[in-house]
Write a structure and sequence with these properties.
It is a single chain. By secondary structure, the protein is an alpha/beta fold. It contains ten helices and eleven strands. The chain has helices spanning 16-29, 40-46, 79-91, 103-116, 140-161, 176-184, 199-211, 231-241, 263-281, 313-322; strands at 3-8, 33-37, 49-52, 96-101, 120-124, 163-169, 189-191, 217-222, 246-251, 287-292, 295-300. The strands form two sheets. The chain has a seven-stranded mixed β-sheet with strand order 3-2-1-4-5-10-11, sandwiched between helices. A four-stranded parallel β-sheet has the order 7-8-6-9, with helices on both faces. Helix 2 crosses helix 3 and helix 5 crosses helix 6. The longest helix is centred in the middle third of the chain and has 22 residues, at 140-161. The termini are far apart. The chain binds 6-O-phosphono-beta-D-fructofuranose. The active site is at residue 128. Its EC number is 2.7.1.11.
Length: 324
């Protein structure tokens, strides 16, 4: 391998820049050429490349987003689109690709490799933490901190006005952000897709906390939770059935995707970026490099999809006990 290209694809996440930087600098270290691809797979199809060297990635370790930009490419879903991408890779003399993204990115890589037999190594970059084969994804820790900081602020005003706040957080079909940020922010209730709580149990539980002397409440709602999917409808239901509280809704939205990466995410991204180039040099391909028990490891792309998310019973218990 002499020339590696790197791209970011799917939803951006804080730490993607740090990961690109680590890939580029690993290439410099190993005397490999490195190209960046703009806008993920779409840039591959359009031949939108940029030559990168160690200095091209200065002053980005601290920056959120991805300077290579990202996209969810529809064209890459087609055989023709992938063929164009392959032709561009060949025309540029690129020997291998590092793709930073989530499971959609890895699914694309698998099909691409099947059709064109091209070495690809992936890195998990998503705030959702919904990837198998890694304990943490790049950007997740930063998103948790963003959510906790936001809820701390909401708590101030909730407390001043004796209000109940429903706070919707991202995570797609996974409840990791909701559960962990909910515990960290001291939420009264946490609604996650992995556990169907039901409206009535929620109301009953909020009633109990009111009776136990709480004057305000925070309910963290994962966007993928069944009843949370209509958070404004849920707020109406609570208003009708729990008249003791004034109910407000805050949807945190895309602020969770931005901001300077936490130190944890910068270090994780740096370790995985170095790991990706190491893996390619060892001849590995069709794998994602992740972190398991604080060790950099690799797992086949085909095993990175989470499927049904498991409920973390220990965390649920902690959330229950600490919110009495
Ligand atoms: O996968 C990251 C994520 O932010 C999810 O949490 C969310 O469901 C989705 O992307 C939002 O996507 P978009 O930015 O395309 O609206």
């Amino acid at each position: 391998i002499k020339k590696i290209a790197v791209l970011t694809s799917g939803g951006d996440s804080p730490g993607m820049n740090a990961a690109i930087r680590a890939v580029v600098r690993s290439c410099t270290y190993h005397q490999l050429e490195c190209l960046g691809v703009y806008r993920g797979y779409q840039g591959l199809i359009e031949g939108d490349f940029v030559t990168l060297n160690a200095r091209s990635v200065k002053n980005i370790i601290n920056r959120g987003g991805t300077f290579l930009k990202s996209a969810r490419s529809k064209e890459f879903l087609s055989v023709e689109g992938r063929k164009r991408a392959f032709d561009n890779l060949k025309a540029e003399g690129i020997d291998a690709l590092v793709t930073i993204g989530g499971d959609g990115t890895f699914a694309g890589a698998v099909v691409f490799n099947e059709e064109h037999n091209f070495p690809i190594v992936g890195l998990p970059g998503t705030i959702d933490n919904d990837i198998n084969g890694t304990d943490f994804t790049i950007g997740y820790d930063t998103a948790l901190n963003t959510v906790v900081e936001a809820i701390d602020k909401i708590r101030d005003t909730a407390h001043s006005h004796n209000r109940l706040f429903l706070v919707e957080v991202m995570g797609r079909d996974a409840g990791d952000i909701a559960l962990n940020a909910g515990i960290g922010a001291g939420a009264e209730e946490i609604l996650i897709p992995e556990q169907n709580m039901g409206k009535d149990r929620l109301v009953a539980s909020l009633k109990r906390s009111k009776e136990a002397g709480k004057s305000s409440s925070i309910v963290v709602v994962a966007e993928g939770d069944q009843i949370g999917k209509n958070i404004f409808g849920l707020a109406d239901y609570i208003r009708e059935n729990l008249t003791e509280y004034e109910v407000k809704v805050t949807v945190l939205g895309h602020i969770q995707r931005g901001g300077a990466p936490s130190c944890y995410d910068r270090v994780l991204a740096s370790r995985l970026g170095v790991g990706a180039v190491d893996a390619l040099l060892k001849g590995e391909r069709d794998i994602m490099v992740g972190i398991v028990n604080n060790k950099v490891t690799s797992v086949p792309f085909t095993e990175t999809s989470k499927g049904e998310n498991e409920l973390d019973k220990e965390l649920i218990r902690v959330a229950d006990i600490t919110s009495v």
